[in-house]
Amino acid sequence: MRAMNKLPETVDEADQRWVDGVAWAKAELGIGISETCAVAGDASFRRYLRLSDGPRSWILMDAPPERESCEPFVDITQRLRQAGLHAPRLEALDLKRGYLLLEDLGDRLFRDLIDCDSADHWFPDLFKVLATFAQDVDTGGLPAYSRKRLQDELELFPEWYLRRHKGLQPDCAFFDYWESLCTELLVSAEAQPQVFVHRDFHSCNLLLAPDDSIGIIDYQDAVRGPLTYDLASLLWDRYEPWPRARLEPWMEAFRQQVAPDTAADVWQRQVDWMGLQRNLKIVGIFARLHYRDGKTGYLEMIPRFWNYLVDALARYPRFHPFLEQLEQLQCAP
Prior knowledge:
By secondary structure, the chain is of the alpha+beta class. The protein is built from 12 helices and 9 strands.
C-alpha cells in the first residue's frame, strides 16, 4: 500500500474539489479523516483519493460533472454486484456534484501478481469472472457495441497514428485494403453472442481484494458486445506479452466454458480478430491521448500493441496485403 500524506492545510483553487469532497465524505461517514493519499487514476478526468481514519479506509472518486458522469459507474456497479462479482460497494454518492465514496479494494493489482510462473494459477479464476460477465450480468439497457462504434474505434488508427503521429497520407490502395480488413473484423464481431463487456479488462483494472476475491474497477464504459472482447483485453495485456504457445491453451480453456458448441478453429479466429480490432484501436487511442489530451506516457506503450497487431495480421493470409501496405509505409513505431 502506498504511503499516505496528510491533506495540506491550504490548497490552490484547482484542488478545491478535493477539499469539498473530503468534507462531504467526512459528513457522510460521520467520522474524522486523519490521512489522505492520491490513488493512481486512468485516462479519464476522474480522480481518486484514499481516505483513512486509521484502521479503516475508503476511496473518494471525484468526477467533475461537466466532464464525467458518475451515473454509468453506479449503474454498472449494481449490475456486477447483483451477479455476485466484487465491484466496490457504494458507501455514499452525490451525483449532482460528482462525488462517490467507495469501498477500498486495496492495492494488490493483478499487474503485480501475474507473471510467467503464476499466470496458470490466476487465469482460471479470471476466466470465471469473464464467464459470469457473459452468463449472469444483466445487459438490459446497456449501449450496444455496434458495428458503427467498432468502426469508429478502428478509424482512430489511420487518423491519429498514421496521419497525426507518423505524418503519413496513405493512398487509395491502402484504404482499399483497410476497408476490407475492417469489414472482416466487424462481421466476425457481429457473429458472436452479445454479452456484458467491461471494455478494459486487464491486469491494472483487477485487484486481489482484502477478502481474496477478485475486485473489478474502471468498468463505467461497459457495453453489450462480442463475447471475445474482454478475453482479448486480458490476453493481449499492456504489461505482459504472452507467447503464442500460452495464448492458445487459454483461448481453448475459455471456449470450453462459454462456447463449447463453437468449433475451436472458429473460436481462435474470433479471438484473434477481436484482439486485432482492439489493438488497432489502442494504437490510435494512445496517439490521441498524447496529441489531443496532452497525456504523456502513452506513446511509449505503442510498440507492444504494434507487435500484437502485426503478429495477428501475419497469421491470416487474407490480411497479408494490408500488412504489406504497413511495411511499405514504414510506419512501425
